[in-house]
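Consortium newsletter contribution from the modelling node. Members have asked for a concrete example of what our holo predictions look like. Here is one, prepared for the acetyl coenzyme *A complex that several groups have been discussing at recent meetings.
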Amino acid sequence: MEFPFDVDALFPERITVLDQHLRPPARRPGTTTPARVDLQQQIMTIIDELGKASAKAQHLPAPITSASRMQSNRHVMYILKDTSARPAGKGAIVGFLKVGYKKLFVLDDREAHNEVEPLCILDFYIHESLQRHGHGRELFQHMLQKERVEPHQLAIDRPSQKLLKFLNKHYNLETTVPQVNNFVIFEGFFAHQHPPARKLPPKRAEGDIKPYSSSDREFLKVAVEPPWPLNRAPRRATPPAHPPPRSSSLGNSPERGPLRPFVPEQELLRSLRLCPPHPTARLLLATDPGGSPAQRRRTR
Ligand SMILES: CC(=O)SCCNC(=O)CCNC(=O)[C@H](O)C(C)(C)COP(=O)(O)OP(=O)(O)OC[C@H]1O[C@@H](n2cnc3c(N)ncnc32)[C@H](O)[C@@H]1OP(=O)(O)O
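And here is the predicted structure:
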């Protein structure tokens, strides 16, 4: 992937690691140094283009990786440059891997909920012309070493078939532990929780708790939709004009339909007993004059 500026000078190392600050790496001695703001603009251009290419490769309706999303999240991007081909002496980018810690509720093999904060594979892309040349493995290995994690300790955000094959081939990851969210975890995930699953800080104030295992890809569906099960259609006296969304089963992501009115209170409370609380639900209960504190406690 080529750019109209000198990628080779911008990223002196074969693999560059970027965090939310998008700081330009130190340049090689003797290279002219453009203004810092220009360098950061170049980095933002690279990230945006990589995000678009990755989305296209995965048939996503919109990129899940962009410079602005990097700046507003605590994700880490590993970017691999091509050190062999140097078109017009400006270098090229081979691909990237994006990771980040996320608080998730995952099921173990006894189907019990566990609150964990593992390192997650969020986005991964190698340029089409260079796939199956070992570049993906090189990036992945580098990330594992830097982050000090073992492959079975990772959670993967809705992996593609190619990524599942990749993980199987290079890391023998095959048997998954079925989940009800979009993350895939493999056998062995629960065997070693320290590290990488970060020790969680003391219980946060209720308002701070994030939605149920929110995937980075959620916003691709309906941006303002509340999470499952709050998005289920209310019971209706007359049949709906359209068939209801497919029901979910263990191991599959719940199918999300378009934004619907909230479920009736009793059904909502029943659903909430089955899953961790969500701020939207708390807001509903807090504004409901009939919702007693006892009812509210049941949602914890
Ligand atoms: C959470 C997420 O990010 S999900 C999205 C993952 N990204 C994508 O699907 C985008 C398109 N794919 C890619 O960019 C790349 O194929 C990656 C990132 C998945 C792997 O990078 P590569 O450089 O191709 O991997 P690398 O060369 O190190 O390993 C090759 C192995 O990956 C798997 N793989 C890679 N491409 C394919 C493919 N087209 N079909 C099937 N398996 C594939 C295979 O196991 C392959 O081994 P094989 O060639 O012996 O069958």
